[in-house]
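Give me the fold.
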Amino acid sequence: MAFLSVEQLDGRVSSTSGIAVDFIRDWRQAASRLNAGHRTAFQHDYWLGAWYEAFHDLAPLIAVISDAATGKDIAMVPMISHVRRGIRVVEFADLGVSDNNAPILALDAPMDAAGARAAAEALVQGLRALPDRFDLLRLKKLPSYVGGKPNPLVTLGRVGSCSLNGNLVLTGDDYADYQASIKRMQMPRCWRVFSRNAGARFEIATHVDRAHALLDVMDVQQQDRMRQLGSKFVLNDDAHARFYRDVVRQGVAEGYTIVSALVCDDGIVATTLGVRYGATYFLLRISHAGKNWASCSPGLLVTERTMAALHAQGVRRFDLSIGNHDYKRRFGAEPAPLTDVSIALSWRGLPYVLRDHAAQGLRRHPRLAALAARAMGKASRRGE
């Protein structure tokens, strides 16, 4: 039986199908919930804790979905609320730093088709019932599954509607077989060329101080690269710098945060930053020292050496991040679709939902999308 009640002080909403939704405004309070739940690397407490601390000017809004009868948690959705152009928007705690966004799902959450849809609809109804009078719910970059369970929030959108996708490499158990499959990249030759430099080595940082030193170099190298491309670089501003360093500080010792580098006596030639969760690794950032090192393809080489080292530790799934750069196909990456959801929470959000849906529909027709981009004066950046 459907029912609805609102307790405004605590932000609790009991919604359809006997599902209750609590809204918590402090991540530290919410973090104790669902510690053993299914998640991806981007719902890890190290990631979200660092995010809410670094981007503290935004209002946390964490939804905890539970069974109204038993009180057992079903899912937790880490979100924020803010005002954009006068519209009150609810979205994931992301701001572009996460490769995917998802709820944390209880290990025993009922995620058949009916249960998934009920949980998702309860979240929407709960947001509409809050006294904040939100206008728009935007949930971007949703994976279809979270820890092997269907992602309930995907039921609110169309699978693959996101303009971005993951790039997944499945190496199998024999890394030599995988290396043979990418032999055209000539990674052994690149390693030989790099190894001619005095003191040449590959390393994965195991101490925070060393990881932070590599991150400092990464910021400089990436900023130089963006300047050459005429693009703005924001990952070293106060909030982003604090975020990445906090993720590194918390996660390096136990192998959640992976900071790797090609190093020789001349200095740090290339770096990577990624996160690992279980048997899956997400590559997030790459940098290198520029054209003087082009003979050994340092960005590709540091990526391949990182994959080899993590494969030896049991990693078998390597996501080379969103963005369809050509080198990812050369590594054997296959697109992993993501889903976007836009839902009007009030009449004021409806025009934004219509625009989002139109853009999603246009992406199903690449030629029309290219024509629209040219008409709007946006040059194609495919292959950058």
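The domain at 5-163+338-375 is CATH 3.40.630.30 (Aminopeptidase).
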